[in-house]
Design brief:
alpha/beta; Isoleucyl-tRNA Synthetase, Domain 1; four-stranded parallel beta sheet; 12 strands; three-stranded antiparallel beta sheet; 564 residues; Gyrase A, domain 2; 22 helices
Length: 564
Protein backbone atom coordinates (compact mmCIF):
# COMPACT_ATOMS: atom_id res chain seq x y z
CA UNK A 1 0.00 0.00 0.00
CA UNK A 2 1.55 3.26 -1.15
CA UNK A 3 2.58 6.02 1.26
CA UNK A 4 0.93 9.23 0.04
CA UNK A 5 3.78 11.47 1.23
CA UNK A 6 6.41 9.37 -0.55
CA UNK A 7 4.19 9.33 -3.62
CA UNK A 8 4.00 13.13 -3.63
CA UNK A 9 7.82 13.35 -3.38
CA UNK A 10 8.34 10.79 -6.18
CA UNK A 11 6.08 12.84 -8.46
CA UNK A 12 8.35 15.88 -8.05
CA UNK A 13 11.58 14.20 -9.10
CA UNK A 14 12.71 13.50 -12.69
CA UNK A 15 15.75 11.31 -13.26
CA UNK A 16 16.64 9.93 -16.67
CA UNK A 17 16.14 6.18 -16.95
CA UNK A 18 14.03 5.93 -13.78
CA UNK A 19 10.27 5.91 -13.47
CA UNK A 20 8.17 7.13 -10.55
CA UNK A 21 8.04 3.66 -8.99
CA UNK A 22 11.85 3.35 -8.98
CA UNK A 23 12.21 6.72 -7.27
CA UNK A 24 9.43 5.90 -4.78
CA UNK A 25 11.27 2.72 -3.74
CA UNK A 26 14.49 4.67 -3.08
CA UNK A 27 12.85 7.15 -0.70
CA UNK A 28 13.51 6.22 2.93
CA UNK A 29 12.74 7.50 6.42
CA UNK A 30 15.86 8.96 8.12
CA UNK A 31 16.85 7.50 11.50
CA UNK A 32 16.72 11.01 13.01
CA UNK A 33 13.75 13.27 12.17
CA UNK A 34 16.07 16.29 12.39
CA UNK A 35 17.33 15.08 9.00
CA UNK A 36 13.83 15.27 7.57
CA UNK A 37 10.76 13.06 7.45
CA UNK A 38 11.87 11.43 4.18
CA UNK A 39 15.17 11.25 2.33
CA UNK A 40 16.35 10.40 -1.19
CA UNK A 41 19.97 9.09 -1.27
CA UNK A 42 21.78 10.23 -4.44
CA UNK A 43 24.85 7.98 -4.42
CA UNK A 44 23.63 5.56 -7.07
CA UNK A 45 22.98 8.45 -9.51
CA UNK A 46 26.67 9.39 -9.72
CA UNK A 47 27.29 7.39 -12.93
CA UNK A 48 24.23 8.82 -14.65
CA UNK A 49 24.93 12.46 -13.73
CA UNK A 50 28.74 12.10 -13.70
CA UNK A 51 28.81 14.25 -10.58
CA UNK A 52 29.33 13.70 -6.88
CA UNK A 53 26.27 12.67 -4.84
CA UNK A 54 26.52 15.98 -2.96
CA UNK A 55 26.25 17.98 -6.22
CA UNK A 56 23.43 15.77 -7.48
CA UNK A 57 21.44 16.32 -4.28
CA UNK A 58 21.90 20.09 -4.66
CA UNK A 59 20.75 19.93 -8.29
CA UNK A 60 17.60 17.89 -7.46
CA UNK A 61 16.80 20.32 -4.62
CA UNK A 62 17.16 23.35 -6.94
CA UNK A 63 14.99 21.66 -9.60
CA UNK A 64 12.06 21.00 -7.26
CA UNK A 65 12.21 23.67 -4.53
CA UNK A 66 9.72 25.91 -6.34
CA UNK A 67 7.37 23.02 -7.11
CA UNK A 68 6.80 21.69 -3.60
CA UNK A 69 3.33 21.95 -2.13
CA UNK A 70 1.54 20.53 0.91
CA UNK A 71 2.03 18.06 2.48
CA UNK A 72 5.71 18.77 1.67
CA UNK A 73 6.81 22.09 3.22
CA UNK A 74 10.60 22.16 2.84
CA UNK A 75 13.43 20.46 0.95
CA UNK A 76 17.16 20.47 1.77
CA UNK A 77 20.32 18.91 0.31
CA UNK A 78 22.72 17.47 2.92
CA UNK A 79 25.78 15.30 2.23
CA UNK A 80 24.41 13.50 -0.81
CA UNK A 81 20.83 13.24 0.45
CA UNK A 82 17.74 15.24 -0.51
CA UNK A 83 15.78 15.64 2.73
CA UNK A 84 12.07 16.38 2.72
CA UNK A 85 10.09 17.87 5.59
CA UNK A 86 6.35 17.27 5.87
CA UNK A 87 3.80 19.82 7.09
CA UNK A 88 2.48 17.59 9.85
CA UNK A 89 -0.35 19.92 10.77
CA UNK A 90 -1.57 19.89 7.17
CA UNK A 91 -1.37 16.09 7.17
CA UNK A 92 -3.15 15.99 10.52
CA UNK A 93 -6.16 18.07 9.61
CA UNK A 94 -6.51 16.36 6.21
CA UNK A 95 -6.23 12.91 7.76
CA UNK A 96 -8.67 13.57 10.62
CA UNK A 97 -11.28 14.92 8.21
CA UNK A 98 -10.76 11.86 5.99
CA UNK A 99 -11.17 9.35 8.85
CA UNK A 100 -14.26 11.11 10.25
CA UNK A 101 -15.81 11.13 6.77
CA UNK A 102 -15.05 7.46 6.05
CA UNK A 103 -15.59 6.05 9.55
CA UNK A 104 -15.01 2.29 9.66
CA UNK A 105 -14.36 2.32 5.92
CA UNK A 106 -11.04 4.10 6.48
CA UNK A 107 -8.35 1.79 5.09
CA UNK A 108 -10.72 0.15 2.59
CA UNK A 109 -9.14 -0.53 -0.79
CA UNK A 110 -9.88 -1.98 -4.20
CA UNK A 111 -6.42 -3.59 -4.19
CA UNK A 112 -7.92 -7.05 -4.58
CA UNK A 113 -10.68 -6.23 -7.05
CA UNK A 114 -11.45 -9.24 -9.23
CA UNK A 115 -9.21 -11.59 -7.21
CA UNK A 116 -10.42 -14.50 -5.09
CA UNK A 117 -8.49 -15.73 -2.06
CA UNK A 118 -9.44 -19.13 -0.63
CA UNK A 119 -8.46 -19.52 3.02
CA UNK A 120 -8.55 -22.96 4.62
CA UNK A 121 -8.64 -22.54 8.42
CA UNK A 122 -9.89 -24.04 11.68
CA UNK A 123 -10.61 -27.44 10.05
CA UNK A 124 -11.96 -29.02 13.19
CA UNK A 125 -12.36 -32.78 13.52
CA UNK A 126 -15.88 -34.14 13.71
CA UNK A 127 -16.71 -35.91 16.98
CA UNK A 128 -13.61 -34.50 18.66
CA UNK A 129 -13.50 -31.59 21.11
CA UNK A 130 -12.88 -28.04 19.91
CA UNK A 131 -9.80 -27.56 22.06
CA UNK A 132 -7.27 -24.81 22.75
CA UNK A 133 -5.04 -26.24 20.01
CA UNK A 134 -7.58 -25.06 17.41
CA UNK A 135 -7.36 -21.45 18.58
CA UNK A 136 -4.50 -20.23 16.38
CA UNK A 137 -5.66 -21.66 13.05
CA UNK A 138 -9.17 -20.33 13.72
CA UNK A 139 -8.32 -16.75 14.67
CA UNK A 140 -5.38 -16.33 12.25
CA UNK A 141 -7.50 -17.55 9.33
CA UNK A 142 -10.48 -15.44 10.40
CA UNK A 143 -8.35 -12.27 10.69
CA UNK A 144 -6.80 -12.82 7.25
CA UNK A 145 -10.29 -13.44 5.84
CA UNK A 146 -11.56 -10.12 7.20
CA UNK A 147 -8.51 -8.11 6.09
CA UNK A 148 -8.62 -9.53 2.56
CA UNK A 149 -12.28 -8.54 2.33
CA UNK A 150 -11.50 -5.01 3.55
CA UNK A 151 -8.86 -4.69 0.84
CA UNK A 152 -11.33 -5.57 -1.90
CA UNK A 153 -10.60 -9.26 -2.40
CA UNK A 154 -13.30 -11.88 -2.72
CA UNK A 155 -12.31 -13.98 0.31
CA UNK A 156 -13.68 -17.51 0.65
CA UNK A 157 -13.45 -18.98 4.16
CA UNK A 158 -13.23 -22.78 4.11
CA UNK A 159 -13.60 -25.08 7.11
CA UNK A 160 -12.07 -28.29 5.74
CA UNK A 161 -13.73 -30.60 8.25
CA UNK A 162 -11.93 -33.71 9.43
CA UNK A 163 -14.92 -35.97 8.74
CA UNK A 164 -13.34 -39.06 7.25
CA UNK A 165 -11.27 -41.99 8.46
CA UNK A 166 -11.32 -45.10 10.62
CA UNK A 167 -11.93 -43.04 13.79
CA UNK A 168 -15.58 -42.93 12.75
CA UNK A 169 -15.66 -46.70 12.61
CA UNK A 170 -14.19 -46.67 16.13
CA UNK A 171 -16.86 -44.26 17.33
CA UNK A 172 -19.68 -46.33 15.88
CA UNK A 173 -18.33 -49.45 17.56
CA UNK A 174 -17.96 -47.59 20.87
CA UNK A 175 -21.42 -46.05 20.59
CA UNK A 176 -23.12 -49.37 19.74
CA UNK A 177 -21.35 -51.16 22.60
CA UNK A 178 -21.37 -48.56 25.39
CA UNK A 179 -23.29 -45.54 24.14
CA UNK A 180 -26.60 -43.98 25.12
CA UNK A 181 -28.44 -41.65 22.71
CA UNK A 182 -30.00 -39.56 25.51
CA UNK A 183 -26.59 -38.99 27.10
CA UNK A 184 -25.13 -38.16 23.68
CA UNK A 185 -27.73 -35.46 23.06
CA UNK A 186 -27.27 -34.13 26.59
CA UNK A 187 -23.45 -34.13 26.77
CA UNK A 188 -22.58 -33.75 23.06
CA UNK A 189 -19.00 -33.90 21.87
CA UNK A 190 -17.63 -34.42 25.39
CA UNK A 191 -19.57 -37.68 25.47
CA UNK A 192 -18.24 -38.71 22.05
CA UNK A 193 -14.71 -37.98 23.26
CA UNK A 194 -15.28 -40.14 26.34
CA UNK A 195 -16.42 -42.98 24.06
CA UNK A 196 -13.35 -42.47 21.83
CA UNK A 197 -11.04 -42.66 24.86
CA UNK A 198 -12.86 -45.77 26.11
CA UNK A 199 -12.48 -47.44 22.71
CA UNK A 200 -8.69 -46.95 22.74
CA UNK A 201 -8.47 -48.19 26.29
CA UNK A 202 -10.51 -51.33 25.49
CA UNK A 203 -8.80 -51.98 22.13
CA UNK A 204 -5.46 -52.32 23.89
CA UNK A 205 -6.97 -55.34 25.65
CA UNK A 206 -9.06 -56.62 22.71
CA UNK A 207 -7.39 -56.20 19.29
CA UNK A 208 -10.54 -57.46 17.53
CA UNK A 209 -12.15 -54.07 18.21
CA UNK A 210 -9.84 -52.44 15.66
CA UNK A 211 -10.94 -54.92 12.98
CA UNK A 212 -14.58 -54.23 13.84
CA UNK A 213 -13.93 -50.46 13.56
CA UNK A 214 -12.40 -50.90 10.10
CA UNK A 215 -15.47 -52.88 9.02
CA UNK A 216 -17.80 -50.13 10.19
CA UNK A 217 -15.79 -47.47 8.40
CA UNK A 218 -16.05 -49.58 5.24
CA UNK A 219 -19.83 -49.58 5.78
CA UNK A 220 -19.76 -45.76 5.81
CA UNK A 221 -17.81 -45.80 2.55
CA UNK A 222 -20.30 -48.25 1.04
CA UNK A 223 -23.32 -46.16 2.06
CA UNK A 224 -24.73 -48.48 4.76
CA UNK A 225 -27.88 -46.80 6.14
CA UNK A 226 -27.26 -47.39 9.87
CA UNK A 227 -23.57 -46.44 9.67
CA UNK A 228 -24.34 -43.25 7.70
CA UNK A 229 -27.10 -42.21 10.12
CA UNK A 230 -24.75 -42.50 13.09
CA UNK A 231 -21.96 -40.73 11.16
CA UNK A 232 -24.34 -37.85 10.34
CA UNK A 233 -25.57 -37.70 13.94
CA UNK A 234 -21.99 -37.31 15.22
CA UNK A 235 -21.37 -34.60 12.59
CA UNK A 236 -24.55 -32.63 13.40
CA UNK A 237 -23.87 -32.64 17.14
CA UNK A 238 -20.28 -31.50 16.59
CA UNK A 239 -21.24 -28.60 14.33
CA UNK A 240 -24.00 -27.44 16.68
CA UNK A 241 -21.45 -27.13 19.47
CA UNK A 242 -18.56 -25.62 17.54
CA UNK A 243 -20.79 -23.02 15.87
CA UNK A 244 -21.50 -21.59 19.33
CA UNK A 245 -17.76 -21.11 19.81
CA UNK A 246 -17.34 -19.64 16.32
CA UNK A 247 -20.08 -17.14 17.12
CA UNK A 248 -18.24 -16.02 20.26
CA UNK A 249 -15.02 -15.65 18.28
CA UNK A 250 -16.76 -13.68 15.48
CA UNK A 251 -15.64 -16.33 12.98
CA UNK A 252 -17.52 -17.30 9.83
CA UNK A 253 -17.05 -19.62 6.86
CA UNK A 254 -18.40 -19.79 3.35
CA UNK A 255 -17.83 -23.54 2.98
CA UNK A 256 -17.82 -26.52 5.32
CA UNK A 257 -16.73 -29.00 2.64
CA UNK A 258 -14.50 -31.46 4.46
CA UNK A 259 -12.66 -34.65 3.62
CA UNK A 260 -15.84 -36.66 3.02
CA UNK A 261 -16.93 -34.20 0.32
CA UNK A 262 -13.88 -35.08 -1.77
CA UNK A 263 -14.26 -38.84 -1.47
CA UNK A 264 -15.72 -39.14 -4.98
CA UNK A 265 -13.44 -36.47 -6.49
CA UNK A 266 -10.06 -38.17 -6.04
CA UNK A 267 -10.18 -40.66 -8.89
CA UNK A 268 -9.90 -38.12 -11.73
CA UNK A 269 -6.81 -36.66 -10.04
CA UNK A 270 -5.24 -40.10 -9.66
CA UNK A 271 -6.00 -40.85 -13.31
CA UNK A 272 -4.33 -37.61 -14.42
CA UNK A 273 -1.27 -38.49 -12.35
CA UNK A 274 -1.15 -41.89 -14.07
CA UNK A 275 -1.55 -40.35 -17.53
CA UNK A 276 1.36 -38.01 -16.82
CA UNK A 277 3.53 -40.88 -15.63
CA UNK A 278 3.83 -39.46 -12.11
CA UNK A 279 2.14 -42.28 -10.16
CA UNK A 280 4.30 -45.30 -9.39
CA UNK A 281 3.81 -48.46 -7.33
CA UNK A 282 5.81 -49.09 -4.19
CA UNK A 283 5.13 -52.26 -2.20
CA UNK A 284 1.54 -52.29 -3.47
CA UNK A 285 0.94 -48.62 -2.67
CA UNK A 286 0.68 -45.78 -5.18
CA UNK A 287 3.08 -42.88 -4.67
CA UNK A 288 4.63 -39.91 -6.41
CA UNK A 289 8.42 -40.22 -6.22
CA UNK A 290 9.89 -36.98 -4.84
CA UNK A 291 13.43 -38.22 -4.10
CA UNK A 292 14.81 -35.83 -6.74
CA UNK A 293 13.55 -32.98 -4.53
CA UNK A 294 15.00 -34.39 -1.27
CA UNK A 295 11.56 -35.46 -0.02
CA UNK A 296 10.11 -38.87 0.80
CA UNK A 297 7.53 -40.21 -1.67
CA UNK A 298 4.05 -38.68 -1.50
CA UNK A 299 1.80 -41.61 -0.57
CA UNK A 300 -1.61 -41.30 -2.23
CA UNK A 301 -3.13 -44.81 -2.13
CA UNK A 302 -2.23 -47.44 0.46
CA UNK A 303 -1.72 -51.07 -0.48
CA UNK A 304 -5.23 -51.84 0.83
CA UNK A 305 -6.73 -49.19 -1.50
CA UNK A 306 -7.28 -46.55 1.21
CA UNK A 307 -6.58 -42.91 0.35
CA UNK A 308 -4.84 -40.34 2.52
CA UNK A 309 -4.89 -36.65 3.47
CA UNK A 310 -2.69 -35.82 0.47
CA UNK A 311 -5.11 -37.49 -1.94
CA UNK A 312 -8.05 -35.50 -0.61
CA UNK A 313 -6.02 -32.28 -0.49
CA UNK A 314 -5.18 -32.71 -4.18
CA UNK A 315 -8.85 -33.27 -5.00
CA UNK A 316 -9.78 -30.24 -2.89
CA UNK A 317 -7.25 -28.02 -4.73
CA UNK A 318 -8.69 -29.06 -8.10
CA UNK A 319 -12.24 -28.45 -6.87
CA UNK A 320 -11.40 -25.01 -5.42
CA UNK A 321 -9.61 -23.89 -8.58
CA UNK A 322 -12.55 -24.99 -10.73
CA UNK A 323 -15.21 -23.56 -8.38
CA UNK A 324 -13.59 -20.29 -7.27
CA UNK A 325 -10.75 -19.76 -9.79
CA UNK A 326 -8.69 -18.53 -6.87
CA UNK A 327 -5.81 -16.06 -7.19
CA UNK A 328 -4.28 -17.68 -4.09
CA UNK A 329 -5.24 -20.52 -1.79
CA UNK A 330 -3.94 -20.32 1.79
CA UNK A 331 -3.72 -23.22 4.24
CA UNK A 332 -3.58 -22.06 7.86
CA UNK A 333 -2.21 -25.26 9.40
CA UNK A 334 0.34 -25.95 12.17
CA UNK A 335 4.04 -26.10 11.29
CA UNK A 336 4.13 -29.85 12.01
CA UNK A 337 2.51 -30.31 8.59
CA UNK A 338 5.33 -28.54 6.71
CA UNK A 339 6.45 -31.70 4.90
CA UNK A 340 2.88 -32.63 3.92
CA UNK A 341 2.36 -29.28 2.20
CA UNK A 342 5.77 -29.32 0.51
CA UNK A 343 4.92 -32.72 -0.96
CA UNK A 344 1.37 -31.79 -1.91
CA UNK A 345 2.45 -28.52 -3.58
CA UNK A 346 5.31 -30.27 -5.42
CA UNK A 347 2.93 -32.90 -6.82
CA UNK A 348 0.68 -30.15 -8.22
CA UNK A 349 3.74 -28.42 -9.69
CA UNK A 350 4.80 -31.66 -11.39
CA UNK A 351 1.29 -31.94 -12.81
CA UNK A 352 1.85 -28.57 -14.47
CA UNK A 353 -0.44 -26.58 -12.16
CA UNK A 354 1.15 -23.18 -11.54
CA UNK A 355 -1.43 -22.29 -8.89
CA UNK A 356 -0.45 -20.03 -6.00
CA UNK A 357 -0.82 -22.23 -2.92
CA UNK A 358 0.70 -21.22 0.41
CA UNK A 359 1.06 -23.02 3.70
CA UNK A 360 0.62 -20.51 6.55
CA UNK A 361 2.22 -22.33 9.50
CA UNK A 362 1.85 -21.41 13.15
CA UNK A 363 3.19 -22.56 16.50
CA UNK A 364 1.47 -24.43 19.28
CA UNK A 365 -0.69 -23.05 22.05
CA UNK A 366 -0.91 -24.70 25.44
CA UNK A 367 -1.67 -23.97 29.06
CA UNK A 368 1.01 -24.03 31.72
CA UNK A 369 0.31 -27.68 32.56
CA UNK A 370 1.43 -29.06 29.22
CA UNK A 371 0.51 -31.10 26.16
CA UNK A 372 -2.87 -32.48 25.08
CA UNK A 373 -3.91 -35.86 23.71
CA UNK A 374 -7.39 -36.74 22.42
CA UNK A 375 -6.76 -40.48 22.73
CA UNK A 376 -5.83 -40.19 26.40
CA UNK A 377 -8.64 -37.75 27.09
CA UNK A 378 -6.32 -34.94 28.12
CA UNK A 379 -7.78 -31.97 26.28
CA UNK A 380 -8.43 -28.36 27.25
CA UNK A 381 -11.68 -27.28 25.63
CA UNK A 382 -11.56 -23.88 23.98
CA UNK A 383 -15.05 -23.18 25.36
CA UNK A 384 -13.73 -23.74 28.90
CA UNK A 385 -10.81 -21.38 28.26
CA UNK A 386 -13.19 -18.68 26.99
CA UNK A 387 -15.54 -19.17 29.94
CA UNK A 388 -12.73 -18.91 32.45
CA UNK A 389 -11.36 -15.78 30.75
CA UNK A 390 -14.82 -14.19 30.78
CA UNK A 391 -15.29 -15.05 34.48
CA UNK A 392 -11.93 -13.49 35.37
CA UNK A 393 -12.73 -10.43 33.24
CA UNK A 394 -16.04 -10.05 35.07
CA UNK A 395 -14.31 -10.16 38.46
CA UNK A 396 -11.80 -7.48 37.36
CA UNK A 397 -14.51 -5.23 35.90
CA UNK A 398 -16.75 -5.61 38.97
CA UNK A 399 -13.81 -4.58 41.17
CA UNK A 400 -12.62 -1.67 39.01
CA UNK A 401 -16.03 -0.32 37.96
CA UNK A 402 -18.78 -1.76 40.22
CA UNK A 403 -21.41 0.67 38.87
CA UNK A 404 -20.92 -0.34 35.24
CA UNK A 405 -24.10 -1.47 33.54
CA UNK A 406 -24.08 -4.59 31.35
CA UNK A 407 -21.09 -6.05 33.18
CA UNK A 408 -21.78 -9.54 31.80
CA UNK A 409 -21.84 -8.37 28.19
CA UNK A 410 -18.70 -6.30 28.72
CA UNK A 411 -16.92 -9.22 30.41
CA UNK A 412 -17.77 -11.45 27.43
CA UNK A 413 -16.21 -8.94 25.04
CA UNK A 414 -13.15 -8.40 27.23
CA UNK A 415 -12.55 -12.05 28.15
CA UNK A 416 -12.99 -13.49 24.66
CA UNK A 417 -11.15 -10.51 23.15
CA UNK A 418 -8.22 -11.07 25.50
CA UNK A 419 -7.88 -14.69 24.36
CA UNK A 420 -8.00 -13.73 20.66
CA UNK A 421 -5.61 -10.79 21.06
CA UNK A 422 -3.05 -12.90 22.92
CA UNK A 423 -3.14 -15.44 20.08
CA UNK A 424 -2.63 -12.75 17.43
CA UNK A 425 -0.11 -10.49 19.15
CA UNK A 426 3.05 -12.48 18.42
CA UNK A 427 4.39 -13.78 15.12
CA UNK A 428 2.21 -16.76 14.29
CA UNK A 429 5.10 -19.24 14.20
CA UNK A 430 5.86 -18.64 17.88
CA UNK A 431 4.64 -21.20 20.43
CA UNK A 432 2.34 -19.74 23.07
CA UNK A 433 1.99 -20.78 26.71
CA UNK A 434 -1.33 -19.28 27.70
CA UNK A 435 -1.62 -17.33 30.98
CA UNK A 436 -4.97 -15.87 32.07
CA UNK A 437 -3.38 -13.23 34.30
CA UNK A 438 -1.14 -11.89 31.53
CA UNK A 439 -3.74 -11.77 28.76
CA UNK A 440 -6.35 -10.11 31.00
CA UNK A 441 -4.08 -7.33 32.24
CA UNK A 442 -5.48 -3.85 31.62
CA UNK A 443 -1.92 -2.58 31.22
CA UNK A 444 0.68 -3.38 28.61
CA UNK A 445 0.41 -5.14 25.29
CA UNK A 446 -2.98 -6.78 25.75
CA UNK A 447 -6.46 -6.80 24.29
CA UNK A 448 -8.08 -5.25 27.41
CA UNK A 449 -5.59 -2.34 27.26
CA UNK A 450 -6.57 -1.59 23.65
CA UNK A 451 -10.29 -2.02 24.42
CA UNK A 452 -9.94 0.30 27.43
CA UNK A 453 -8.42 2.98 25.19
CA UNK A 454 -11.39 2.61 22.82
CA UNK A 455 -13.78 3.01 25.78
CA UNK A 456 -11.79 6.05 26.99
CA UNK A 457 -12.18 7.74 23.59
CA UNK A 458 -15.87 6.89 23.60
CA UNK A 459 -16.28 8.38 27.10
CA UNK A 460 -14.62 11.63 26.00
CA UNK A 461 -16.94 11.93 23.03
CA UNK A 462 -20.02 11.19 25.15
CA UNK A 463 -19.06 13.81 27.72
CA UNK A 464 -18.60 16.36 24.95
CA UNK A 465 -22.00 15.43 23.47
CA UNK A 466 -20.81 16.24 19.96
CA UNK A 467 -17.94 17.85 18.11
CA UNK A 468 -19.09 21.42 17.57
CA UNK A 469 -17.63 24.53 16.00
CA UNK A 470 -14.69 25.06 13.70
CA UNK A 471 -11.59 23.30 15.02
CA UNK A 472 -8.38 25.16 15.73
CA UNK A 473 -5.77 22.64 14.69
CA UNK A 474 -3.26 24.25 17.03
CA UNK A 475 -5.01 21.92 19.50
CA UNK A 476 -3.12 19.03 17.95
CA UNK A 477 0.05 20.97 17.13
CA UNK A 478 2.14 19.18 19.74
CA UNK A 479 4.52 16.25 19.86
CA UNK A 480 2.06 13.78 21.42
CA UNK A 481 -0.82 14.53 19.05
CA UNK A 482 1.46 14.42 16.00
CA UNK A 483 2.68 10.99 17.10
CA UNK A 484 -0.96 9.83 17.14
CA UNK A 485 -1.57 11.39 13.71
CA UNK A 486 1.50 9.63 12.32
CA UNK A 487 0.19 6.30 13.58
CA UNK A 488 -3.34 6.89 12.27
CA UNK A 489 -1.82 7.49 8.86
CA UNK A 490 -0.11 4.08 9.04
CA UNK A 491 -3.28 2.04 9.61
CA UNK A 492 -3.72 1.14 5.90
CA UNK A 493 -0.06 0.14 5.80
CA UNK A 494 -0.58 -2.32 8.69
CA UNK A 495 -3.36 -3.98 6.67
CA UNK A 496 -1.15 -4.35 3.64
CA UNK A 497 1.68 -5.83 5.74
CA UNK A 498 -0.81 -8.29 7.24
CA UNK A 499 -1.73 -9.83 3.88
CA UNK A 500 1.77 -9.47 2.43
CA UNK A 501 3.27 -11.57 5.23
CA UNK A 502 0.09 -13.39 6.36
CA UNK A 503 0.67 -11.99 9.86
CA UNK A 504 -2.27 -10.49 11.83
CA UNK A 505 0.26 -9.41 14.47
CA UNK A 506 0.94 -6.33 12.33
CA UNK A 507 -2.56 -5.12 13.24
CA UNK A 508 -2.49 -6.12 16.92
CA UNK A 509 0.91 -4.49 17.49
CA UNK A 510 -0.18 -1.42 15.58
CA UNK A 511 -3.24 -1.11 17.84
CA UNK A 512 -1.07 -1.30 20.97
CA UNK A 513 1.23 1.42 19.60
CA UNK A 514 -1.77 3.61 18.74
CA UNK A 515 -3.35 3.09 22.16
CA UNK A 516 -0.09 3.94 23.95
CA UNK A 517 0.42 7.07 21.85
CA UNK A 518 -3.14 8.28 22.46
CA UNK A 519 -2.87 7.68 26.20
CA UNK A 520 0.34 9.77 26.29
CA UNK A 521 -1.57 12.56 24.55
CA UNK A 522 -4.54 12.11 26.92
CA UNK A 523 -2.41 12.46 30.06
CA UNK A 524 -0.43 15.49 28.86
CA UNK A 525 -3.11 17.65 27.23
CA UNK A 526 -6.49 18.91 28.43
CA UNK A 527 -9.34 17.78 26.22
CA UNK A 528 -12.83 18.25 27.72
CA UNK A 529 -11.92 21.42 29.62
CA UNK A 530 -9.67 22.90 26.90
CA UNK A 531 -10.62 26.10 25.05
CA UNK A 532 -13.59 25.39 22.72
CA UNK A 533 -11.64 25.53 19.43
CA UNK A 534 -8.75 23.47 20.78
CA UNK A 535 -11.23 21.03 22.34
CA UNK A 536 -12.90 20.41 18.96
CA UNK A 537 -9.60 19.45 17.28
CA UNK A 538 -8.64 17.19 20.19
CA UNK A 539 -12.03 15.49 20.21
CA UNK A 540 -11.64 14.93 16.47
CA UNK A 541 -8.38 13.17 17.25
CA UNK A 542 -10.12 11.01 19.90
CA UNK A 543 -12.91 10.18 17.46
CA UNK A 544 -10.42 9.05 14.84
CA UNK A 545 -8.51 6.91 17.35
CA UNK A 546 -11.79 5.32 18.45
CA UNK A 547 -12.73 4.64 14.81
CA UNK A 548 -9.41 3.05 13.90
CA UNK A 549 -9.10 0.98 17.09
CA UNK A 550 -12.68 -0.24 16.66
CA UNK A 551 -12.04 -1.25 13.06
CA UNK A 552 -8.69 -2.85 13.88
CA UNK A 553 -10.26 -4.92 16.65
CA UNK A 554 -13.12 -5.93 14.34
CA UNK A 555 -10.61 -7.26 11.81
CA UNK A 556 -9.05 -9.38 14.56
CA UNK A 557 -12.50 -10.70 15.52
CA UNK A 558 -12.70 -8.69 18.75
CA UNK A 559 -15.66 -6.60 19.92
CA UNK A 560 -15.03 -3.14 21.38
CA UNK A 561 -17.08 -2.30 24.52
CA UNK A 562 -18.35 1.27 24.73
CA UNK A 563 -17.65 1.37 28.48
CA UNK A 564 -15.33 -0.59 30.75
Amino acid sequence: MLNNNKLEIARLIRIEGMDQKDIYNLISIPPDNKMGDYALPCFQFAKVFRKSPKMIAEQIKDDIKDKIKPPIKKVEAVNGYVNFYVDKLFVGRTLLANIIEKGGNFGDSDLGKGKTICIDYSSINIAKPFHIGHLLTTVIGSALYKVYKKLGYNAVGINHLGDWGTQFGKLIVAFKRWGDRDLLEKKGVKYLNDLYVKFHSESEKDKALDDEARRYFKKIEDGDKEALELFQLFKDITLQEVNKVYERLNVRFDSYNGEAFYNDKMQPVLEELEEKGLLTESEGAKVVDLSEYDMPPCLLVKADGATLYATRDLAAAFYRKKTYDFHKCLYVVAYQQNLHFKQFFKVLELMGKDWELYHIPFGMVSLEDGVMSTRKGKVVLLEDVLNKAVKKAYDIIARKNPNLKNKKETAEKVGVGAVIFSALYNNRIKDIVFSYDKVLSFEGETGPYVQYTYARCNSLLEKADSIMGEPDYEGINNKEAMEVVGLLEKFPESLFETIEKYEPCYISRYLVDLAKAFNRFYYRHRIIDAEPELKTARLMLAKCVKTVIGEGLRLLGISAPAKM
